[in-house]
Amino acid sequence: MSTATVSRAVTASAPGRLCLAGESLDWMTGGSSVVAAMPLRTRVTAWRAHGSTALTLTSGSPLFRTRLIPAALAANGCYAGDALDHMQAAARVALRQRDLIAGTVLTAASDLPAGAGLSSSAALTLAVVMALDGLNGFPLDLEAVCERARQAEAGELSSGAGWMDFLACAHGGVNRVNAGAVPSVERIAPTLGIPVVVIDTLQRRTTAAVLASKRERFQAQEPGMVVYSREAGALVDAITAVLSSQAVDHWEVGRLLNAGQELLRDKVRCSTDLIDTCVQRVLSAGALGAKLSGSGHGGCLFALVPDDALTAVLKSVANLPVHALALPASEPHGLLSTLPLPRSRTTPA
């Protein structure tokens, strides 16, 4: 008769994020952005299968995939080139040693659509690193988790990701993220204080390819990209000031969101016809402001919507090939773990 061994398990979760202003400024100029976490989370549970010699990756929604990687291959950074690479890269960065990788099991599930501009990959890598740190008894340090999660994407997978996504998801709430030589987070408010409608256009793009194209255009000093880098910085300052006021003027926030969308559409040229149609319809239906989130060329947009306009806004896009989701507010909490996590405001480069 066999004896079952009950393994310790640690679960960590991270929210997705919306970018109100300053997309790409983190890697363009080392500039700032204003971000809000959203109450859609990615959860990762880490445990050990005693006697296993592989790294086991299992994913529920939205990927529904499984991968078994011999520990030696995982330790050497051999990737398959699919959506589970982010889990594997985060595990390699967090564990490094073959004997720690062998027998590790990671189970993930997410409320976030993948590749839609809501930082689903940052939320995943953060949750993987945090869960593995807890499982292996490593010190739980938010700054170190952010640094290694970014290393998994930007280093292991060469995605071109900057600091914004990782700091936004890790800290939660509404923040100004300053990329700079020493990246930092300035808390503005726990939430936006107004309902948000997120609209997924169901159009997908490869984030790494989009970022590579933007980098080439910016490095070539394409006029539109230069204008964007300058004017987006001014929008970041303006939105920070409005959201920091004691009585937030959400109409003004909406106006600034619309200005940001116009910059992204006309100067960066990363909007799409479907995104533009959605923006026009929700604004006509009573939304205060709307813009795409993330790298654009598909993915999601979001709108700030007062309670009395919520039904009209949802109806305005009901006959389009999109999925609209109404959220009561943004998310005040960032990275969470079944183990206590010390909090801090600054992440070293």
From TrEMBL:
Domain GHMP kinase C-terminal: 251-315
Molecular function GO labels: ATP binding; galactokinase activity
Annotated coiled-coil segments of the chain: none
Domain GHMP kinase N-terminal: 89-173
Single GO BP term: galactose metabolic process
UniProt cross-references to InterPro entries, sorted A to Z: GHMP_kinase_C_dom, GHMP_kinase_C_sf, GHMP_kinase_N_dom, GHMP_knse_ATP-bd_CS, Ribosomal_Su5_D2-typ_SF, Ribsml_uS5_D2-typ_fold_subgr
Key word Cell inner membrane present: no
Pfam families with a match to the protein in the record: GHMP_kinases_C, GHMP_kinases_N
This protein's record includes keyword Zinc: no
Keywords: ATP-binding, Kinase, Nucleotide-binding, Transferase
Family, per entry: Belongs to the GHMP kinase family. GalK subfamily.
PANTHER family in alphabetical order: GALACTOKINASE-RELATED, MEVALONATE KINASE/GALACTOKINASE
Protein name as catalogued: Mevalonate kinase
Species assigned in the record: Peterkaempfera bronchialis
Organism placement in taxonomy: Bacteria, Bacillati, Actinomycetota, Actinomycetes, Kitasatosporales
